[in-house]
Structure formats: C-alpha cells, structure tokens
Design brief:
Layout (H helix, E strand, L loop, with lengths): L1 E5 L3 H15 L19 E2 L5 H4 L28 E15 L4 E19 L4 E24 L4 E26 L2 E22 L6 E24 L2 E8 L2 E15 L2 E16 L2 E10 L2 E10 L12 E10 L14 E10 L11 E12 L9 E15 L7 E15 L2 E5 L1
Length: 424
C-alpha cells in the first residue's frame, strides 16, 4: 500500500508572504524614476525574469536546470523533480544624459514569483504558475521653457512622470513524450495599468499650476508554446513561441488646476480600444562541456507602427557562460557555487518619431549561493541567485538621451520534497 506524507520546512514559509504579495502588489515599480525611453509604447519589455537568467544575459530558452523555474520556456520545467518555489526582486540605477546635463534615477520592483509541482519524473510532467512583469514604465524628466506672458517673462517648468506596466500571469505544464524531446504550454493573462502625469508650474506665483494625468488599464489573454530537444547528451536546443494577444485598453484623462488656493478636478476624456500585443519567437542552444555550460538566445518580435507610432521591429542576441556547481557529495566552499557571465545586443522596439531606433548593449555577471542542500536529514535545497548587469543605450543627438545603467537582481529559490512514497 502506498501513502503520501506531506513534508514542510521553514524555507517554504519564508516564501509564503512574498507569494501572497504577488497577488496584491503590482509588479511595476513605484519609484523616483528610471529609463526615459519607457515613456514610449508600453515601456521597457522584460524577457527572462529570473536572476539566474539575468546572470547570463537573460539566456534561458535551452538551459537545463533542476532547481530554477524557467521563466521563458515551459518545456524547461521537465528537469524539476521536486516542488520548487522562487521569488525575486530587481534594483536599477540610471544615468540619463542629453549631452549637456545628466541626472541619476533609480527604481526597484518585485520581479518574479513562481511555483512548480512535478507530477511525473519519468515523463517530465509538471504544473507551474508564475507572475512576472511583461513591461515596466518608470520615468521622470523635467523641461524648463521660457514663456512671454505679455507683461513679463517667466519660466514654465514641466515635469513628466510615469509608472506602472503590464504584468503577465501564466499557468501551464510540461511533458516529455520521448527521452530526447520535451514540450510545454501555458495560458497567459495580461493585466496592469500605466499612469502618465504632466505637472506644469511657473516661476511667476500669480500663474496657475496644473496637473494632467492619463491612466491606461490593460487586460487580455494569450499563451506560449515551448520545446526542448536533446539530440546529444551534452547538447540541448530550444524554441519558444509567445502568441501575444489582443488587449483591451481603457484610458482616462483628467486634469487638476490650482486657482487662488482652490483645487479643481475634471475628467477630460474616457476611451476604450483594443490593441494587439505582437507574437514573439525565441530560439536557443546550450552545450555542456565539463563543468561549463555555454548558451545563447536569439529573439524576434514584429511591432505595428499603426498602433504603436514609436515602435519598430525588435531583435535580441545574447550569449552566456556558466561555471556549474560541483555535484560531488564531498564538494565544499566555492566549489558548491555556480558562477555566470554573459553579453547581449538588443535592437529595442523604441523608435521615437522619425529618429533612429534605440539600440542597447550590456554585460552581466551572476552567481548562485547555496544555503542548504538536500540530504538524508534535510529535504530542502535553498539558494540565492545574484546578478549584476551593466549597459547603455541611446545617443545624445536629435534631441535623444543616452542612458548608462546598472541593475541588481536577487532571487530566493527553494526546491523541496513535499510528498514521499512509502511502502507498507
């Protein structure tokens, strides 16, 4: 006779408050500022959202892992043999320059919440849930303009700010019908809001100040399909097709005016329309040679300039290298750690007006530090992943800005044996 016995640990309880927060706290940052280019379209697009992927320049499509829930390719869940939970956050620092002056802006945000439950080790069968950002908007910029009022000259100060983004919640499964082939699919829910504000004030105290605000709320459905193939033991190939979706967008435009100490609020317009989130396809490969994992990803997405006037077709190319942790039971110290590095070139989907498109490039470093390892007396494997990214994009010509940035990603993951089969 077989029975199931549920086993819990303190590591799982540490993740529970974070998982609950994912359901009630928007994933987009509420901050002092970030990338100026996120004012366009739906903001900065997010690819892989795990700190482990960030350490190798975002590469995930074909990367095998029995401790990390792949945030890009559901077919990659085939390697998970025990219940796995993970949660992460991200901190960003930007230096934005227009060629004459520079400002520093930063923001932080919750980045990834995921849980995976294996149901068949032989078939690579899993069920997983994840919530992560699809796009983020975090900008703040100040423009000062001389104004002639007829009687005197004054300066108008316009402060533009935005926050929010679109989040993606998905639920899906993986299966391995053949030893060399794994498939995965998810159903996705897109949701979120983007708020843009313009505050106008004058150096002349006799002139009224005003605040204009536009809030856009998005909701829609989509999905993704993933595949991983292993033609040789050391080689894995992968591909992911994200269907995109048709999102309903509700917009509210309002204004607030200060006049003689009184505040007047008015809703200027309400509108509703559907916008198409385009499909995205990603190909990847990973090779294991000794203690090293070499991997690469190529991603492409075609954007419509009719619905997004400041968009162009996007492409991303990334390569990564992992020094894998030792699997020896006698390993100790740094030999139990994994180290990563990577580089990428990103043809972003930003093309402001008639200006040239915005390209981005960067390098990354990462590591995985184990906090515990499964053993006869411990049924939990807990680790922290850390990633650093340094890069730049844009240029200071044609009224554009150049951004130099650094990003820090942190992630706590727990792989735990919840159910044990026993014989009587």
């Amino acid at each position: 006779m077989r029975t199931n016995r549920r086993i819990a640990s303190v590591h799982t309880l540490c993740l529970v408050p974070l998982m609950l927060a994912a359901c009630v706290v928007p994933l987009a940052a509420q901050s002092s500022g970030g990338s100026t280019y996120s004012i366009f379209n739906i903001g900065d697009l997010q690819m892989g959202t795990t700190a482990s992927a960030a350490g190798r320049a975002g590469v995930e499509t074909a990367v095998p892992s029995n401790t990390i829930i792949n945030s890009l390719n559901p077919a990659g869940w085939q390697d998970l043999h025990v219940v796995t939970l993970q949660a992460g956050m991200n901190f960003e620092q930007y230096r934005v320059s227009d060629g004459n002056t520079s400002i520093y802006q930063n923001n932080s945000k919750l980045q990834n919440f995921a849980a995976c439950f294996p149901w068949s080790e032989a078939l690579g069968g899993t069920v997983a849930f994840s919530v992560h950002p699809y796009s983020t908007v975090t900008y703040r910029t100040l423009v000062q303009t001389p104004v002639n009022t007829g009687d005197s000259n004054t300066t108008m100060q316009s402060t533009y700010g935005g926050h929010g983004g679109i989040s993606e919640a998905l639920v899906g499964s993986s299966i391995r019908p053949f030893p060399w082939l794994a498939l995965g699919a998810t159903a996705d829910l897109y949701f979120g809001s983007i708020t843009s504000t313009t505050n106008v004030s004058f150096s002349d105290p006799n002139l009224n100040t005003a605040n204009y605000q536009t809030t856009q709320r998005y909701v829609g459905f989509g999905g993704r399909f993933g595949v991983q193939a292993k033609p040789f033991e050391e080689l894995r190939l992968g591909a992911v097709y994200e269907t995109g979706g048709r999102l309903n967008r509700q917009s509210v435009v309002s204004t607030t005016v200060q006049d003689n100490g009184n505040q007047f609020y008015d809703t200027l317009a309400n509108s509703e329309q559907d916008v198409n989130l385009p499909a995205r396809i990603t190909f990847g490969a990973a090779v294991i040679t000794g203690r090293f994992l070499l991997s690469s990803d190529v991603s492409m997405q075609s954007w419509s300039r009719t619905e997004f006037p400041n968009a162009r077709n996007a492409a991303r190319y990334a390569v990564g290298v992992d020094r894998l942790a030792s699997t020896s039971l006698n390993a100790s110290g740094l030999d139990r750690w994994a180290f990563r590095m990577g580089a990428y070139y990103d043809q972003t989907y930003y093309q402001p007006g008639t200006a040239d498109g915005i390209d981005q490039m960067g390098v990354t470093l990462g590591l995985r530090c184990p906090l515990s390892t499964m053993s006869a007396t411990n049924n939990s494997n807990t680790a922290i992943d850390v990633a650093l990214e340094f890069g730049q994009r844009g240029k200071t010509v044609g009224g554009l800005t150049k951004e130099t940035f650094g990003k820090l990603s942190l992630q706590l993951s727990v792989s735990e044996l919840w159910f044990v089969r026993s014989r009587r």
